[in-house]
RNA sequence: GCGCCCGUAGCUCAGCCGGACAGAGCGACGGAUUUCUAAUCCGUUGGCCGCAGGUUCGAAUCCUGCCGGGCGCGCCA
């Protein structure tokens, strides 16, 4: 496993820098320079460090560069070091180090890119958590894709990750759902319906009512109102919950645990939590309600936990739920929320503090909205009127691969412009296929091998003459391969799956360029073996990278 | 009014833990196929990085203000 090539180089630079500046350990960031002549990786540490020492940046850079060249650890990885500009240190990677990275990729296979962080964390990532009052929408789809990808990426980055869905199956919204379904049921039987104020108008409510009518006839017409409402609420929420699970499963999103708010609250956890907060002096009573003193902990104002009518707000059980998550031993909680929840961030942070946890152990991530387009046409949506595009419809229209890739491709905080027409298009303007095509092409090369080179057998990995790889396109490709672990590292740190997409698209470009210019299977067995190995390494990275996004890597397209 | 997010090429977006002349795809125009899948490749075209200040040797990147867009400010969830 070991550290990524780039991290090892950064470490070597830091060592050289420390030796020259006397003790200080600067954080070295190695970046890919825009211009080819500036090497494969460059750093400006010397310029930053020189200032503190009152030295000329160029002089320090030259001394660090000289020491770096002598560094035995670096020698195998770097071909040469140059000092340029005001004091940039430019590194030119040695082909030997890159070939070793290709060999490592082949050895590690599905584990390539897996990291071993100094301090692995136990992370719980909660996402989607949509109320079971309607089918998952496109907005939930994006949260599902981002959350599941993040879970995979963080796990690949060496953390212990669990995923969880908090099923909000209690409270006013569920009661409204039940009353809405009951109204549709009555209407279907020719009675006065009366969807309540703020009720659910979507067609699925009528379908659920119709199902009950078919199965149970009109027996609920005469039942006591409370009993009927409770039955319809539970039945409808259950049905919708099943649909949600089914859709997520098909979307390749897996949860380690589903927590039912109703069951959770029934266990007394909410009261226990309130007691703890009260004992800590964070709770007081006013106007007949119970309040949480969140303003003193950084929120805009204090928040109600228990309403005057005795019922808890959404917030109270949610604090208890987060308390429970911490108590289950997680170091870090990540919550994915929609943009309508950003006002919720400060109060939950306050709650985390009141629970005696460090602020950094809780990371809310706001997943921005998605606006759907079909070509130029913007698809309007209104949840209240029950008019929205569901995740199911998107999956059916563009497929799981394209949907997941599109959702993961933009930065999480940016508004997503999702064009269904583009996602469905099977052409080169669709980035999913651009990346998947690499995998299919490599598979095709291997499939044609017996026919194109009869009798050729691929030697074991350590017997392949990787030193035959030296063309510019091949070296570029090797650099991209070697960069995959860094992409995993950065995506995990930033909690942004789009880093994986960017990396894969760059790798794909490098591969297609190499493929166009150099034939893999030739009369030269050594060269053929080396190029097959390179192609296989590319395939490995594509498969692993797409795997982190929950996107398939097809053998044929 | 207060708070959060966004503002980069005609379009969709990267880049944003500060670095060397700002990137990709699409679009438009022109090329490449006796070779392992043309869902590919090559070239041309195209940008006061919203505006104005500040910090810095150096700012698309950090800070402040403004403008524009989205969202939130319930004893709703």
Describe this structure in words.
The protein is 51% helix and 12% strand. It has 557 residues and is α/β, with parallel strands linked by helices. The protein folds into four domains: 3-93, 2-Layer Sandwich (Gyrase A, domain 2); 122-170 and 253-366, HUPs (Rossmann fold, 3-Layer(aba) Sandwich), CATH 3.40.50.620; 172-250, no CATH class; 427-548, Isoleucyl-tRNA Synthetase, Domain 1, CATH 1.10.730.10. The strands form four sheets. A five-stranded parallel sheet has the order 6-5-4-10-11, with helices on both faces. Strands 1-3-2 form a three-stranded antiparallel sheet. Helix 6 crosses helix 18, helix 17 packs parallel to helix 19 and helix 17 (431-452) runs antiparallel to helix 20 (525-548). It is globular and about 85 Å long. The protein starts with a helix and ends in a 9-residue tail after the last helix. It binds one RNA strand of 77 nucleotides through helix 2, strand 8, strand 9, helix 17 and helix 19.
CATH class of the largest domain: Alpha Beta
Report the end-to-end length measured between terminal Cα atoms: 32 Å
Largest sheet: 5 strands, parallel
Task: Please state how the strands of the largest beta sheet are arranged side by side.
Answer: 6-5-4-10-11
Task: Using the coordinates shown, work out and report the CATH topology of the largest domain.
Answer: Rossmann fold
Helix count? 20
Specify the overall morphology: globular
The count of β-strands is: 14
Mean pLDDT: 91
Q: What is the domain total for the residues?
A: 4
CATH architecture label of the largest domain: 3-Layer(aba) Sandwich
- Estimated helix fraction: 40-55%
């Amino acid at each position: 496993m070991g550290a990524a090539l780039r991290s090892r180089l950064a470490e070597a630079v830091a060592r050289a820098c420390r030796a020259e500046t006397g003790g200080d350990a600067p954080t070295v960031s190695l970046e890919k320079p825009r211009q080819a002549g500036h090497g494969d990786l460059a750093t400006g540490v010397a310029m930053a460090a020189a200032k503190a020492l009152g030295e000329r940046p160029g002089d320090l850079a030259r001394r660090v560069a000289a020491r770096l060249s002598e560094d035995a650890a670096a020698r195998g990885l770097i071909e040469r070091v140059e000092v340029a500009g005001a004091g940039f240190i430019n590194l030119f990677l040695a082909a030997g180090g890159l070939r070793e990275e290709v060999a490592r990729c082949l050895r590690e296979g599905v584990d390539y890119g897996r990291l071993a962080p100094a301090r692995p964390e136990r992370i719980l990532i909660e996402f989607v958590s949509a109320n079971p009052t309607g089918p998952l929408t496109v907005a939930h789809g994006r949260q599902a894709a981002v959350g599941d990808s993040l879970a995979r990426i963080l796990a690949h980055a060496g953390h212990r990750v669990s995923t969880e869905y908090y099923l909000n199956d209690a409270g006013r919204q569920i009661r409204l759902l039940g009353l809405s379904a009951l109204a549709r049921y009555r209407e279907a039987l020719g009675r006065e319906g009366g969807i309540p104020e703020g009720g659910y108008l979507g067609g699925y409510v009528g379908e659920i009512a119709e199902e009950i009518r078919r199965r149970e006839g009109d027996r609920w017409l005469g039942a006591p109102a409370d009993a009927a409402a409770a039955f319809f609420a539970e039945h409808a929420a259950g049905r919708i919950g099943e649909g949600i699970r089914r859709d997520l499963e098909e979307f390749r999103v897996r949860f380690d645990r589903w927590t039912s708010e109703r069951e959770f609250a029934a266990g007394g956890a909410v009261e226990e939590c309130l007691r703890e907060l009260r004992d800590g002096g964070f709770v007081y009573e006013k106007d007949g309600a119970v309040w949480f003193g969140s303003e003193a902990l950084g929120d805009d104002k204090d928040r109600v936990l228990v309403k005057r009518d005795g019922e808890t707000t959404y917030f109270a059980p949610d604090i208890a739920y987060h308390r429970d998550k911490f108590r289950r031993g997680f170091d870090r909680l990540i919550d994915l929320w929609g943009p309508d929840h950003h006002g919720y961030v400060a109060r939950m942070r306050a709650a985390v503090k009141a629970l005696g946890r460090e602020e950094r152990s809780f990371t809310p991530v706001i997943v921005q909205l998605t606006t759907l387009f079909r070509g130029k046409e913007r698809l309007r949506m209104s949840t209240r009127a029950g008019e929205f595009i569901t995740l199911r419809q998107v999956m059916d229209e563009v497929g799981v691969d394209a949907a997941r890739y599109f959702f993961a491709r933009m930065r999480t905080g940016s508004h997503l412009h999702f064009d269904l027409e583009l996602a469905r298009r099977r052409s080169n303007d669709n980035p999913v296929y651009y990346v998947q095509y690499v995998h299919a092409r490599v598979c095709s090369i291997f499939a044609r091998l017996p026919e194109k080179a009869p009798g050729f057998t691929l030697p074991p990995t350590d017997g392949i003459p990787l030193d035959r790889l030296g063309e510019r396109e091949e070296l570029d490709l090797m650099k991209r391969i070697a960069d995959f672990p860094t992409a995993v590292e950065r995506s995990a740190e930033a909690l942004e799956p789009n880093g994986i997409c960017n990396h894969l698209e760059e790798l794909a470009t490098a591969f297609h360029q190499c493929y166009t210019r150099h034939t893999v299977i030739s009369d030269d067995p050594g060269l053929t073996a080396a190029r097959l190995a390179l192609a296989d390494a590319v395939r490995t990275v594509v498969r692993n990278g797409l795997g982190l996004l929950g996107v398939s890597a097809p053998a044929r397209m």
